[in-house]
Amino acid sequence: MNLHAVRAIYLFEMARTWRTLLQSIVSPVVSTSLYFVVFGAAIGSRIDHVEGVSYGTFIVPGLVMLSVLTQSIANASFGIYFPKFVGTIYEILSAPISYFEIVLGYVGAAATKSIILGLIILATAGLFVPLHIHHPIWMLTFLVLTAVTFSLFGFIIGIWADGFEKLQMIPMLVVTPLTFLGGSFYSVNMLPSGWRTVALLNPVVYLISGFRWSFYEIADVSVALSIGMTAAFLVICLVMIGWIFRTGYRLKN
Amino acid sequence: MSSIISVANLSKTYGSGFKALKNVNLDIKRGEIFALLGPNGAGKTTLISIICGIANPSEGKVMVGGEDIVSSWRKARSLIGLVPQELHTDAFESVWATVSFSRGLFGKPKNPAHIEKVLRDLSLWDKKDNKIITLSGGMKRRVMIAKALSHEPQILFLDEPTAGVDVELRKGMWEVVRTLQQSGVTIILTTHYIEEAEEMADRIGVINKGEIVLVEDKATLMQKLGKKRLTLHLQNKLSSLPESLAHYKLELCDSGATLVYDYDTKGERTGITSLLGDLRNAGIRFSDLDTTQSSLEDIFVDLVRTS
């Protein structure tokens, strides 16, 4: 195991985070705060309680997940895409470092960054609404699992993308809509039964539901199903990354 | 001298069907400077990329320091430092950070003293805290060499190390390469500048259309393939050559003011003595004469044209 290399990649990626602090931490915190102001205070004041909790409090887990999902993808995809774009990938490919170690370095850093971000957003939310976390261990488990899974997904996008447009396409056109429709701002149970069935095809529903359960013990689907779906997505991403490295897809010609 | 790199029956076919390398066999001796020459698209970079692990071979075997690059890739790669042709750098990193990063990537623990030595040797020490984006092209090239040397490799690949570098800097770079060789590093360089190979290399390999056309000691190559040219500056201009000199394949140049004779140094007889005798018999006098040895460039062009 080339731990020096994993450490080098991890610290390199983390250093990029601190160098771009405004973009990587401050900007998502500001935009999430705006969600609180708009949805929590302005609109939320007109909405009654949702499943026993105030609307402002209800949307907190969804908002944290929204940021964790999008930032995990953005961090990991950019992290591996940029060396490909500027050509410095030659060094990673010629170094005595295994594919597993490369993924550990890049995905580890991307996940760390979005976990930190998720916790900062959670703390920020605490300034707006009263928070109570019923199952802190499960909350952290969901947070870490989601950050790792979506960082892996981002890594795949970063390898696949051969231009900035493609790099943005999946997050903008697929992930953001799925997250918005995944119950960040409402309970899936509030939908008419037909739409509820459609909504259950959205994998993000399971992530947000499980995460929300760890806060308030209210869930759209069972917790076991939430964990199962997240784990399944994790396995799918791992299998895809395994295939990418085995074939050298978009890395080695 | 033992081989540090051994390439056997190596072929590479790209997805498009293009055959970049065709059954290449090559041995690089430990401690030598080996220059790989070839026109654009000859397969130089593909060969280097495969040895360094950036591209997968289609067929064949490569051993580096006795280790197979496929089955024992970790050991093989840790012996190699690569300076690619293009200037690929992390624009916003400092020189120190990027060179230290490379050392870590190759599995070596931190060693600030070594990084300092590398940067000082490459005249980069006073730029160590500068962001790479602020450096000139020549400096960026040296940063890339520093990155490649950060993990104390036994083999250094320099893919077109002096492309786009001014004459002064190029000579400085040659100096660096020689110092590296003295410290025991084996150096493989590809270049378009024939004078670079002529100046630096111990051995020269020529690759063309994916095939190794020739591998030879530089001196032997020059001697073996070298042609010499005798130029005679005539006292009186000639309008045409006399019949008695027709069999010499002489060329009348400068409107008849000079007579040029190409001869082969590897031939048993150069024909110079009889030529000079026949010239005197024909009443042709000359005021001066000089001879020139064909350069590696002429040899290279000849080889590529005929292969």
UniProtKB/TrEMBL annotation, chain A:
Keyword Cell membrane: yes
Record's keyword annotation contains Acetylation: no
Domain ABC transmembrane type-2 span(s) in chain numbering: 19-248
Major subcellular location class: membrane
Record-annotated membrane-spanning stretches: 21-43, 55-82, 140-161, 167-186, 198-215, 221-245
Stored Pfam families: ABC2_membrane (PF01061)
Membrane topology according to the record: Multi-pass membrane protein
Keywords of this entry: Cell membrane, Membrane, Transmembrane, Transmembrane helix, Transport
Compartments (UniProt record): Cell inner membrane; Membrane
Highest taxon above the source species: Bacteria
Family statement: Belongs to the ABC-2 integral membrane protein family.
Name this polypeptide is given: Transport permease protein
Organism: Bradyrhizobium iriomotense
TrEMBL record, chain B:
Top-level taxon of the source organism: Bacteria
GO molecular-function terms, A-Z: ATP binding
Key words of the record: ATP-binding, Nucleotide-binding, Transport
Domain ABC transporter: 5-234
PROSITE patterns: ABC_TRANSPORTER_1 (PS00211), ABC_TRANSPORTER_2 (PS50893)
The keyword Nucleotide-binding is annotated on this UniProt entry: yes
Entries under InterPro entries matching the protein: AAA+_ATPase, ABC_transporter-like_ATP-bd, ABC_transporter-like_CS, ABC_transporter_ATP-binding, P-loop_NTPase
One Pfam family, short name: ABC_tran
Membership in a protein family: Belongs to the ABC transporter superfamily.
Function: Involved in beta-(1-->2)glucan export. Transmembrane domains (TMD) form a pore in the inner membrane and the ATP-binding domain (NBD) is responsible for energy generation.
Name this protein carries in UniProt: ABC transporter ATP-binding protein
Phylogenetic placement of the source organism: Bacteria, Pseudomonadati, Pseudomonadota, Alphaproteobacteria, Hyphomicrobiales
